[in-house]
Amino acid sequence: MDATAYLVAKSLHVGCAAVSIAGFAARGALMLRGSPLLDARWVRVAPHVVDTVLLASALWLAWVIGQVPFVHGWVTAKVIALLAYIVLGSVALRRGRTKVVRAAAFVAALGAAAYIVSVALTRDPRGALAWFAS
After folding, report:
1. pLDDT at 95
2. DSSP assignment, residue 109?
3. Is the distance from CB of 9 to CB of 61 less than 8 angstroms?
4. So what's the pLDDT on residue 2?
5. Coil, helix or strand at residue 1
6. pLDDT-derived band of residue 68, with 50, 70 and 90 as boundaries?
7. Which long-range contacts link 107-112 to residues 24+ away (Cβ below 8 Å)?
8. pTM, rounded to two decimals
9. C-alpha closest to that of 115 among 97, 133, 129
10. Alpha-carbon separation of residue 53 from 20, 33, 56, 70 (angstroms)
11. CA-to-CA distance for 59 and 53, rounded, in angstroms?
């Protein structure tokens, strides 16, 4: 494993993940307030740019460390949770018919994001629960 490639890929991935989650939280707050800023072009486009770089860095990082979904459980857990996060985020920001549904999806999506981060930190599909295992 190339240590430099690993450090660059990991740093890029962690940075993009932080920006992506913070951006989602900000857009969720705008949604809850009913802000028209949520419809601004840059607010709709910027997440796609960040998330594209996030996905590319995830693929690069997986290649550098030799960990792939459906072979390594913790990576599989992250991919499945990512799909849940995407669906919940879509319901929260656009597809939910009522504010209550959108708010519930927003909270659930933040929970999915927290789970993804905990799986990444522990490299265990149990996520933060792995810290309490004997």
Report:
1. 94
2. H
3. yes
4. 86
5. coil
6. confident
7. 109/24, 109/28, 109/85, 110/21, 110/24, 110/25, 110/28, 112/81, 112/82, 112/84, 112/85, 112/88
8. 0.91
9. 129
10. 10, 29, 5, 22
11. 10
With the CA atoms of 47, 19, 88 and 127 taken in that order, what torsion angle do they form, in degrees rounded to the nearest 10? 150
Tens digits of residue pLDDT in 102-131:
999 999 999 999 999 999 999 999 999 988
Which two structure tokens, joined as six digits, stand for 83? 């799909």
Query: How many domains is the chain partitioned into structurally?
Result: 1
Amino acid found at 126: R
CA 57 centroid distance within chain = 13
Tokens representing 54 are 């996030």
Write the DSSP assignment of 3-44 as a string of letters. Answer: HHHHHHHHHHHHHHHHHHHHHHHHHHHHHHHT-GGGGSHHHH
Q: Which domain holds residue 66?
A: 3-132
